[in-house]
Amino acid sequence: VVFFGPAIGFANDTICQDESIDIGGEIFDQNNSNGTVIVPGASVNGCDSTIFVNISFFPTNVGNLDPVICPGDEFVFEGQIFDENTPNGQVLLPDAAANGCDSMVMISLSFFPTITGTLNQTICEGDSFSFGGEVFDGNNTTGNVILPDACANGCDSTVTVTIDFFAPVSGVLNQTICEGDSFSFGGQIFDANNTT
Q1: CB of 106 within 8 A of CB of 62?
Q2: 72 in Cβ contact with 30 (< 8 Å)
Q3: If you compute the radius of gyration of the chain from its CA atoms, what whole number of angstroms results?
Q4: Cβ-count burial of 125 within 10 angstroms (0-12 exposed, 13-18 middle, 19+ buried)?
Q5: Which of 79, 51, 59, 53 is nearest to 18 (CA)?
Q6: Alpha carbon distance 7, 37 (integer Å)
Q7: pLDDT profile of the chain (196 residues), mean per 10
């Protein structure tokens, strides 16, 4: 009696980490990456075949994206929103790697510093001062004005405005006039009936 030699094969495949492969009716994945499969009657001579399986996995393709944005703005990547409350995270890009596997992008936001300034303005009593669309006067002497997109980086600026008032100017004018005459000053007429 002559016996046929064993029919032996090797399956050394590399697949994506979330994939599985069916060899001879047995599923191989990250939880079951190697083993021996006997396939009844699969050899050329009708005998059983033995397949030694060793599956390896492509490493996850990971990239970093570190955008710098204005405070209060948001950054949208592949439909996911990142902002001051959620500055970091991961975005899965299905089948985006060169080998057809998924890619992972690590997002890490940072923010431009807030730009602030001060503006001190002195005006006459009773006048008003307008800055950035806001009016400052005796009833509103200080406040913060936001100037949208005013910074060189396109972010908003905040200016703290404070107004002061010039001291009132007073003086004394003594004018001597003839009896029966009148004197006009500053739109007012002074005479014997109105001396001060």
Answers
A1: yes
A2: no
A3: 43
A4: exposed
A5: 59
A6: 12
A7: 80 94 94 93 84 95 96 96 97 93 96 95 95 95 95 94 90 86 88 84
Query: Which two tokens mark 55?
Result: 């599956």
Residue position matching structure tokens 């979330």: 18
The answer, as to whether pTM is greater than 0.90, is no
Contacts of 190 (CB under 8 A, 6+ apart): 175, 177, 182, 183, 184, 196
pLDDT, one tens digit per residue, over 19-31 is 999 998 999 999 9
Q: From residue 117, how far is each of 52, 112, 113, 175 by CA, in Å? A: 72, 16, 13, 50
